[in-house]
Amino acid sequence: MRSLDLEFLEDLKAGKNLLAFSGGVDSSALYFLLKSYGIPFDVAIVDYGIRRQSALEVSYARNLCFMDNKQCFVKEVQKIQGNFENEARKVRYAFFESLIKAQGYTHLILAHQLNDALEWFLMQFCKGTSLERMQMSPKSQRSIRDLAKAKTIDYWLVRPLWKINRMQILQYLNTNQLFYFEDFSNFDTHFMRNYFRQNFTDKLIEKFTSGIAFSLELLQENSKAQRKSEIMNVESLGKCCVLEGKDYQNVLEELDFVCKMCGVL
């Protein structure tokens, strides 16, 4: 089986992993890639109940996990009101984190790839935000407060495909004759991510893959260096920080960062 190079393999081999699965191009490829590398993992899938195809996707996930002796967790969601993308994301992560608390997973694996990273960057850039928030981090630590046990649970969110573009992923699936679903809602440009994907992201990736990958990786490295410097500054101040001369949004973002550094939720 022809393969693709994944990031963070050593971390994943040593951890207990939960894969966020949809049955689409990216998560299906990641399922088979993780399996081929001998990475242990279970699967979590959300059925939003808005497409007839979603029941088939859940069935597909369950069958894969049954054949490979993996646990498959399914969340069925009632109709979402309001901003679907935003509310669906909240539901999705609440589900994942409930499993992390209950099952002790150390890594939540997401199937975002290079096209997604650029898409996120462009969307946030056009919306207006800090450089930090424009980036889709390939690996980041998250914390959950377990009120029942009065403790904080840490886990890692990882994106092993983040340097690989969608065309490479499709080639991997087709070359190895691996099944996946095509979510036709991805072509609906009423969703902002689809608008950016069809008008900008895919066209840019097609022409400038290596340059975009290099730039996004360099941004990550610069952010890590900046973050390390800020951590040292916070610690040197005795975990005290004064923010002044900032606009409201920047103050909120920096307060959020400082609180995390100080272990405050």
Structure commentary:
With 265 residues, the protein is an alpha/beta fold. The protein is 53% helix and 13% strand. The chain has helices at residues 9-13, 25-36, 53-68, 84-103, 114-127, 131-134, 166-175, 192-236, 248-261, and strands at residues 17-20, 42-47, 72-76, 107-109, 139-146, 151-158. The chain has a six-stranded mixed beta sheet, sandwiched between helices. The termini are far apart.
Using DSSP, what is the number of strands?
6
| Fraction of residues in helix | 40-55%
Which structural category do the helix and sheet elements fall into?
alpha/beta
* Sheet with the most strands, sense and barrel status: 6 strands, mixed
% residues in beta strands: 5-15%
Mean pLDDT: 86
Low-confidence stretches: none
**Shape summary:** globular
How many H/I helices? 9
Could you spell the SSE succession in H and E letters? HEHEHEHEHHEEHHH
Output the radius of gyration. Answer: 19 Å
Q: Going across the major beta sheet, what is the strand order?
A: 3-2-1-4-6-5
Distance between the termini: 45 Å
